[in-house]
Amino acid sequence: MAMSGILNSEDIKKALDAFAVADSFDVKKFFEMVGLKSRSADDVKKVFTVLDADNSGFIEEEELKFVLKGFSKDGRDLTDKETTAFLRAADKDGDGKIGVEEFTTLVKE
Q1: Which of 78, 89, 99, 101 has the most crowded Cβ, counting Cβ within 10 A?
Q2: Contacts of the segment 17-23: beta carbons below 8 A, 24+ positions apart
């Protein structure tokens, strides 16, 4: 499933452009800009499924580096600093990965 089938392509482009510079990524602002925060829990789960590249049921740290590419093939890789900040913001149980509930909580906060 392509992200553009869930979210507006223009919103995705604007959000990617806003965080094009390394170390500028703000996960909460990004999800708000792409319109995910205002979407249904079902749509949030669909986005999670797209970002869970290995279909493990979790978004692991390695997958977080490429999260912007999940929104568009033109998205940049996150820096190590951004990846760590994203993981810290979402990983509430401290297991080193993000489950669908943790992802939904992060998006909706």
Answers
A1: 78
A2: 19/68, 20/76, 22/76, 22/79, 22/82, 23/79, 23/81, 23/82
